Amino acid sequence: MSETPIPSRGCRTLRRAMPSDLDAVDAFCAEARRTMVELGMSGEIFPVAMLLHESLVNAIVHGNKRAVGKRVCVTVRLGTRWIVLRVTDEGAGFDWRRPDATVPGVESTGGRGLPIYAMYADTVSFNECGNQVTLVRKRGGRST
Amino acid sequence: MNAFELRNDGNVLTVALGGDLTAAVVSALKPAVQKAIDEGVSNVTFDLGKATLMDSTGIGFMIAVYNTLARKKGATRVTNVSGDIMRLLQSMRLDQRLGATAAS
């Protein structure tokens, strides 16, 4: 299940198929952070970790509904100019054509996942049925 | 390192995070904080001195605690906040609501 990072065309790629387990999210994000430190990408760790956490937790909680038998597939491609995250769950998807990235009211306990995508990613896209998100961040191109 | 430590003086519960405040940590932390509130705590302080990240579940949890304590005329504070997390809270307009103070 765990794969060794494979350098490719100046990129480092991490791939994982993980169970619908929130502890697995923290473990994978820790691995991604260590890899980014190795690659001298410390300045991108916070935004990338935020995007990874949000997309993986969304996939487990909202996509797979925490179903034990369902898995989440994640690919993190760490390039010299771009960082690409792709997360796929085994749920039914959602209507991404009407996304709401508006920051919710201060009293709201939810609804901050999509605003976080918008804050830290340059592009956010979904597959047709909405069970796969691809987040692209340009290195050094944003203030957040 | 523990994910968190709780110090309860009867009125103020201090939650000292041992690392990041993520969905996985919230799953374990939520019942412990709720138990303390049920037993009479009316003020909660989150010490984020060892946290480098807080996801939306962590934010939502702190807002839920705030909402619960506000109904009891209590308060929620967040201390030792890193620059990255402070900017995140500011962008969500939550820094003042949660009484967030920066790490020294």
What's a concise summary of this model?
With 144 residues, chain A is α+β, with helices and mostly antiparallel strands.
Describe this structure in words.
The complex is a heterodimer of chains A (144) and B (104). With 144 residues, chain A is of the alpha+beta class. With 104 residues, chain B is of the alpha/beta class. The longest helix of chain B is centred in the N-terminal third of the chain and has 16 residues. Chain B is globular and about 35 Å long.
Major β-sheet annotation of chain B: 5 strands, mixed
Q: What structural class results from the helix and strand content of chain A?
A: alpha+beta
List SSEs of chain A in N-to-C order: EEHHEEHEE
Mean pLDDT of chain B: 95
Quantity of strands of chain B, as a count: 5
Low-confidence stretches of chain A: 1-7
Largest sheet geometry of chain A: 6 strands, antiparallel
Biggest interface, CB < 8 A: A-B, 24 and 25 residues
Average of pLDDT of chain A? 90
Measured distance between first and last alpha carbons of chain A:
33 Å
**Helix/sheet category of chain B:** alpha/beta
Distance N to C terminus of chain B: 22 Å
Give the topology string of chain B: H per helix, E per strand: EEHEHEHE
In what range is the share of β-strand residues of chain B?
25-35%
What's the helical proportion of residues of chain A?
25-40%
Q: Quickly count the helices of chain B.
A: 3
Strand content of chain A: 25-35%
3D shape of chain B? globular
